[in-house]
Amino acid sequence: MLVYPSGIDVSSSALRFLAARLRERRRSLGTRWRRLTAGRQALLTLAHLRNGQPYAQLAAGFRIGTTTVYRYVTEAVELLAALAPTLTEAVRAASMKAFVILDGTLLSIDRIAADRPFYSGKHRKHGMNVQVIADPKGRLLWASPALAGAVHDVRAAREHGIIDALAEAGINCWADKGYQGAGGTVRLPYRGQWDSLSTGQQAANRSYAKVRALVEQAISTLKSWRLLRKLRCSTTRITGLVHAVLTLHLASSD
User: Are 17 and 252 contacting, i.e. CB atoms less than 8 angstroms apart?
Assistant: First the structure.
């Protein structure tokens, strides 16, 4: 396999953050020697998450075994996922905002037609449903655990306790028609055919759409980590990957 120098479009602060956490873990475990330093392990993990490079390619580039790559990446992802903010912490941070925007996104997965629980009729492909909360400027605040793609957005939001948490905190939430019947503090656009809406309702929906569209920036931030664009791992690992990416994003933003 040919090996060549390359780059990763990730902030150096994310590398420093992860390397520091890995050094702390090694000290707590009493690790004396490893094939890669904490900094190189952090770089390896960022290359996998950001570029979606498979283990075999990373093994060749870092001159270690494929199994070692898997162990190093898994260790780092689990460490990052454990540092991700909980919904309670995210709502506490959101209480300083005028409102939040809620939307769901589908993370594509490699599945066959028989895997119906993972098939999203809305997107017409297999995937995992992840709920995303953004601030009024479209910045990513929180991402939920992953559920099967067949789960509708409003059901996913209820299962994660998002609607109740926002209502209890008194935070206004803007969402699309997929959250019909959510209740609480969730605000929705007017329903009905465009011609059947009054002029005032049409104007309100236009303004509403402009605000709600900002959540797409948060979703794009999540999917800028290319591994999440097409996942080929076990579905049980996807929540950890999402939360690891969330931690890295928030750490580099801070």
Answer: yes
Q: What is the pLDDT of residues 223-254, one digit of tens each?
A: 999 999 989 888 899 999 999 999 999 998 87
DSSP β-bridge partners for residue 101? 134, 174
**b vs e for 185-194, b when ≥16 Cβ sit within 10 Å of the residue's Cβ?**
bbbbbeeeee
pLDDT in tens, 70-86: 999 999 999 999 999 99
What DSSP designation does 57 have? H
CA–CA distance, 142 with 159 (Å, rounded to integer) = 15
CA distance linking residue 99 with residue 103, whole number of Å: 14
Whole-angstrom distance, CA of residue 98 vs CA of residue 22:
36
Structure tokens at 218: 């948060």
pTM of this prediction? 0.91
Distance CA 109, CA 131 (A): 16
Residues paired with 231 in a beta bridge = 109
Spatial CA neighbour of 187 closest among 159, 214, 166, 161: 166
Q: Provide the 10 A C-beta neighbour count for residue 107.
A: 22
Q: In sequence order, what DSSP letters do the residues of 96-133 get, joined into one string?
A: TSS-EEEEEEEEEB---TT-GGGEETTTTEEEEEEEEE
User: Are 194 and 202 within 8 A, CB to CB?
Assistant: yes
Instruction: Using CB atoms within 10 Å of the CB of residue 88, give its burial: 0 to 12 exposed, 13 to 18 middle, 19+ buried.
Output: exposed
Q: How far apart are the C-alpha atoms of 127 and 144, rounded to whole Å?
A: 15
Please state, in angstroms and rounded to a whole number, the distance separating the CA atoms of residues 16 and 35: 19
